[in-house]
Amino acid sequence: MKTRLLAATALTTLAAMAATGARADELTLCWAAWDPANALIELSKDFEAKTGHTMSFEFVPWPNFADRMLNELNSGGQLCDLMIGDSQWIGLGAEAGHYIKLNDFFEANGISMDDFIPATVTGYSEWPKGTPNYWALPAFGDVVGWTYRKDWFERPELQAEFKEKYGRDLGVPATLAELKDIAEFFQGREIDGTTVYGAAIYTERGSEGITMGVTNVLYNYGFQYGNPENPYELEGFVNSPGAVEGLEFYKSLYDCCVPPGSSNWYMSENIDAYKSGQVAMQMNFAFIWPGVHADPNVGGDKSGYFPNPAGPAGHFAQLGGQGISVVSYSDSQDAALEYIKWFAQPEIQARWWELGGYSALRAVVEDPGFASSQPYAQTFLDSMAIVKDFWAEPSYWTEVFEDEGKL
Amino acid sequence: MSAHSITEPSNGQKWLAGVLVAAYAIITILPLLWIIATGFKSSPDAIAYPPKVLFQPTLEGYVNLFTTQTRQSAEFLAENPPTTWYEEIVHDKGMVIAGPSRFGERFMNSVIIGFGATFLSVVLGTLAAYAFSRYRVPLKDDLLFFILSTRMMPPIAVAIPIFLMFRNIGLSDTHAGMILLYTAVNLSLAVWLLKGFIDEIPREYEEAALIDGYTRFQAFVKVVLPQATTGIAATAIFCLIFSWNEYAFAVLLTSGTAQTAPPFIPTIIGVGGQDWPAVAAGATIFLVPVMVFTILLRKHLLRGITFGAVRK
Amino acid sequence: MSQLSMDSVARATPPRLSRRIRGLSDRTIAWLFIAPTIFLLLAVNIFPLIWTIRLSFTNFAANRPNAEVQWVGLRNYQRILTDPDTWATMQATAHFLIWTILLQVLIGFTLAWLINRKFRGNDLWTTIIVLPMMLSPAVVGNFWTLLYQPQIGLFNSIVAFLTGADPTSFSMIGDVDLAPWAIIIVDTWMWTPFVMLICLAGLRSIPESIYEAAECDRASKWRQFWTITVPMVLPFLMLAVLFRGIENFKMFDLVVQLTGGGPGNTTTLTSIELKREAFEKWRTGYSSAYAVILFVTVFGLASIYVKALNRVKDR
């Protein structure tokens, strides 16, 4: 069967090459090393078969991703033709000329940014934000949300006890305060012979972990990056009373309701804690949900998903995810653009979602069947509706460090 | 030396020493055994709460180490039943093998760079050590200290200049570049270790050879080198341990073509989080070559590092 | 070596090669032998060092290669040396350095001394003890995060088993007080064998005859230990300390994987701070100055130390 498949692939390749007469390029796509990246390898086989270009992948682990890739871009490196860079680099990529601008290409090929979830267009593609200047195609939608142990939540004795204690049903929390109650309720409880804890939250300090965690609370307590009327006026916005309260809340959540030793945790550690049955809830990006759903211990009906709960001053969730850009130092820009054109097709995007990649194409997520296609699909939609991203402002870097006088 | 030398420790002493050393060895080997055992655990067992000592062994970790996998729809899985044992392991998790992982490549890079740098450092180190040991080199002590001082710069500090320099001369992300770099870092240790050792080889041997009509160079090759094998072997072990395991330069200076395994292993990602069985499997496989090398040269290890210069 | 074999070896050498090399003076050979080493070290170590020194007087930022580079004189140095964070980092490094060396010397020497009793099977146990040293520090650091996990880690379980405490009652890498010790434990676990090997080599190089003579003088074992064993092993030990000291002063891989410098800044060693400045904040000029300060510190300490070592050697 394999040989047949191979032969078929070869034939299609030849046909494709004959048809377009294009030369076959070797493209390198750079991304972080994680679950969705593996799915992209599988997905890209179709591109290779259709165009005759070969794809190779350079996946750098998250903790080193920014260092390694920014070093590459800053030095004008030609390693990557396509870059699925983190959303907060988009400003740098645009201003320093690392990425090529995609407006003309989109126009020529009938790709419209209106077809993508608006938050992802703003988050992953635009620079300056809010202007129709596109430097990437939204590739992978991601957002911080919560996973919880449905099987524990549904235990009658726990439900009864919770109701007695808090006067409401034990269920998905609507506010952060409720979330803390639940976490407190589970903290230190004996379940099936082991001591369990309330919630695993982001605390990592090496890369961006703690920021990705605490912003989910800060936004909802009234933190803002600056005066909406006057972008660089920070005083009273960044440190507003609400922001202080939010920070205090995150700290109190850490003090009361996390597993011992979780002082330097990010995506991977939270997953371990959740899968090993240590916690009732975990904060984590949506990309892990397919893996949770498939897990032998906590998968299937044992787990549920909910968007980041609201706070007293708003309801937001931290945006993750990335767009795909063409690196301006690449020698194979045409082939790289071809890849983006291929990737933007609705059927490829649908397949992307099937393989565990969160498509940002509205045709995919607004499909009537989408919300019920996976148990977490609705949570993803709800979460994407409330996303907020942090600053992708390259001048922020200059401002801060020049102020500190360390430049 | 007589069998009952007066300085020979008593049997009681030996017994006590043996027990203490064995106790330390057992404690110190535990984390390593845990790593090896984790390589044969399933993902849930690897992070079992509380930790599991007894478990059902599986090769899942090793399969994950060598392949990249993708989740697939139930229909696809049903249509494409697994044909090999490793496909079956992956299939049982609802995944398919998308292709080989890059571990094989990274491992081969480690072999080329690790052994290449070891070879080069030993060769250059022996030559330099011999010259320092036998000839009146001007500013000898200063030069030796200079050689040592090259080890003092933190890799992070010189990474940016080296990165730019390598890029300019086309050594960026190449095996040759990394071999040269590791050789340079190793040379300080190699020269210092080997000089001590060559100092201990009596000069009379070479002088006899010179009287026999050998040139200096011949005397070095035919007389000194064979005498120095022990020291060379010990130096090779230390150089290999360093260049085999180096992380900071590898992570900052290499990517696609010349990256070695140490930056790769700690970052093997499974479904969502860190794939501990695969990490452990990688660590285990990665330990084997350097362990075999050391055991093969073990006889020389102790005698090699006598640092002869230390004692006059 | 016998006269005969010398001749046969000489005859085996191709005449042309020997003639060509015969022409080389001692001086030439000496330089030929040393030159590649010096050249390589100049190219790969000294050239970047000079570059770093040059950058340390500028405001260069590697993430903006096109921005105008200004000379800022000694500003970077001044800022680093007056920054209280620098001193906190230095303190963390000193704590790590002093304790790892102390523990490794104590345990390493004791083990070597015990192994030198030459009990049966000492070869096997020695080989086992040496194994941790061969692992990759980055992998070790990474894996120990799992071992140190209060709920699922082996370390806490074993300590709990031995002391009866609850394994989740303490967190080695999550606790501000314990984290500096957590990194010391792992480094000691990994590198004690290095010190042990070198001490063992030292012990084995002590001629038996010295002890025999002491025995004839009726010197006690205790006295023999302090007057023969310790002074004879000291130069070896000092060399081991020199290499461990240099390595641990620039410690990066193990600790960055294990704690990432946290919690807070409790395990932020100088190299980790340097990495943040250079590759996360991209303050290349500033981080270059930082690197130069570190280099000068190690260089200074090491040169004093090597002088002391030479004095011990010559005694």
Textual characterization of the structure:
- The complex is a heterotrimer of chains A (407), B (312) and C (315).
- Chain A is an alpha/beta fold and 407 residues long.
- Chain A folds into 2 domains: 212 residues, Periplasmic binding protein-like II (D-Maltodextrin-Binding Protein, domain 2, 3-Layer(aba) Sandwich), CATH 3.40.190.10; 175 residues, Periplasmic binding protein-like II (D-Maltodextrin-Binding Protein, domain 2).
- In chain A, helix 2 links the parallel strand 1 and strand 2.
- Chain A is globular.
- Chain B has 2 domains: 59 residues, no CATH class; 207 residues, MetI-like fold.
- The radius of gyration of chain C is 26 Å and the shape is globular.
- The two termini of chain C are 32 Å apart.
- The chains are: A alpha/beta (407), B mainly alpha (312), C mainly alpha (315).
- Chains in contact: A-B, A-C, B-C.
- The interface between B and C is large, with 115 and 120 residues.
Query: What is the fold named in CATH at topology level of the largest domain in chain A?
Result: D-Maltodextrin-Binding Protein, domain 2
Overall body shape of chain C: globular
The overall strand count of chain A is 12
CATH topology of the largest domain in chain C: MetI-like fold
Average pLDDT confidence of chain A is: 87
The total tally of domains of chain A equals 2
Quaternary state reads heterotrimer
So how many helices of chain A? 19
Estimate nothing, just give the exact number of structural domains of chain C: 2
User: Roughly what is the average pLDDT of chain C, rounded to an integer?
Assistant: 85
Q: If interface size is counted as residues with C-beta under 8 Å from the partner's C-beta, which chains form the largest one?
A: B-C, 115 and 120 residues
Using the 3D structure, state the CATH architecture of the largest domain in chain A. Answer: 3-Layer(aba) Sandwich
Q: Specify the number of helices of chain C.
A: 14
Question: How big a fraction of the residues of chain A is strand?
Answer: 5-15%
Radius of gyration of chain A: 23 Å
What descriptors fit this protein?
heterotrimer, B: 312 residues, mainly alpha, MetI-like fold, 2 domains, disordered C terminus, C: 315 residues, globular
